[in-house]
Amino acid sequence: MIYVNWYHHNMPKIFGVLSFIINPLFIYLVVTKSRSQMGKYRYLLIGFAVFDMVYSTAELLTPIAVLNSGYGFVTFITEGPFFENLEYGLHGVSSRCCFVSMSYAILIIHFVYRYLILFYPHHVDKMFHSIGIIVMTLFFIAHGAFWTWICEECLAPNEEIRDIIRPSFLEVHHVNSDKISLLTGQYRNASDYVVYKSWIGITSLTVFSMYCMTVYFVLGYKIMKKMNENCNMTNISVNLNRQLFKALVAQTCIPMFASFLPTIIAWYAPIFLINLTWWNNYVCNIALSAFPLIDPIVVIYFIPNYKNTLLIWCKLKKPKVMTNTTSVISAPTTF
């Protein structure tokens, strides 16, 4: 095990445990407290929650840290079942990193669903037919596979890279980096082969991330514009669509600030000899581990049925009471 600091060692574990509490609770709320107008979108919300728990599992099995080494950076496993096996460890750290791109894929699927609801509602059900489910699954897997492939083909270390980073590891962590599973990018002070491979890998991941952000902004703009123009929907449907869109925008901001921006900073700071090891281990890695916990909380906050149900359970709000001649019915809330 490589001990970095208390926050890096313990906060991801705390977030992981809380994720396994909040996400099942969120699934329960989606199943029991969703209005009928939400339709099959509830299945996408459940899928996101399941993904969040798998993400937390990956965080616990393959905790990673980052070290700057001059004109390069190193992402390495600090503990876990893959720590002592270089081959499995390389696959482990690459697979752990690919969860960033898979979270992007799920958000794109959500944006596409919201887009179809407003522009092509007669095509929405096709997303949940066999062919639609297969396409979404392949799209999701392709995102993760591409990220993993780039990491292992372009950022996997060779003997030259291990020679370069060995002094930094000995100085900071007092361990021999030859026995550590890691990914690395080296922008200068290395052979042309290493430098070109690093640039190709980081540029590919950057372009891939930018494509995802572009899809969010383009579809988000179209969805927002359509909602402002659409006069053919009932008030309930309009309110529900606005609530879900707000939740989706907030869900998008989480990976943007917890994944996209931190990784971009971590990738490119070494080009200017800026050592951000503290940033990567105190902020970046902890923010990444918090994503599966924050995501369901955001949705609960923006959907009144979910939020009010929790407030009632916590005795922070009284249930609304509807009375007729035969019975008294307690309802958590209405849209």
CATH class: Mainly Alpha
Per CATH, the superfamily is Rhodopsin 7-helix transmembrane proteins
| Number of discrete helical segments | 9
Output the structural class.
mainly alpha
Protein name: Serpentine Receptor, class J
InterPro entries: 7TM_GPCR_serpentine_rcpt_Srj (IPR019423)
Transmembrane segments: 14-31, 43-66, 93-116, 128-150, 199-223, 279-303
Keywords: Membrane, Transmembrane, Transmembrane helix
Topology:
Layout: H1 6-33, H2 41-61, E1 64-68, E2 72-77, H3 86-119, H4 130-154, H5 159-172, E3 182-186, H6 192-229, H7 235-268, H8 277-302, H9 304-313, E4 320-323, E5 328-331
Antiparallel strand pairs: 1-2, 2-3, 4-5
Keywords: Membrane, Transmembrane, Transmembrane helix
Organism: Caenorhabditis brenneri (Nematode worm)
InterPro entries: 7TM_GPCR_serpentine_rcpt_Srj
Task: Provide key terms for this protein.
335 residues, Rhopdopsin 7-helix transmembrane proteins, two-stranded antiparallel ribbon, 9 helices, 5 strands, globular, disordered C terminus, Serpentine Receptor, class J, membrane, transmembrane helix
Task: Explain how this protein is built.
There is one protein chain. With 335 residues, the chain is mainly alpha-helical. It contains 9 helices and 5 strands; from the N terminus they run ααββαααβααααββ. It has helices spanning 6-33, 41-61, 86-119, 130-154, 159-172, 192-229, 235-268, 277-302, 304-313; strands at residues 64-68, 72-77, 182-186, 320-323, 328-331. The strands form 2 sheets. The protein has a 3-stranded antiparallel sheet. Helix 4 runs antiparallel to helix 6 (192-229) and helix 6 (192-229) packs antiparallel against helix 7 (235-268). The longest helix has 38 residues, at 192-229.
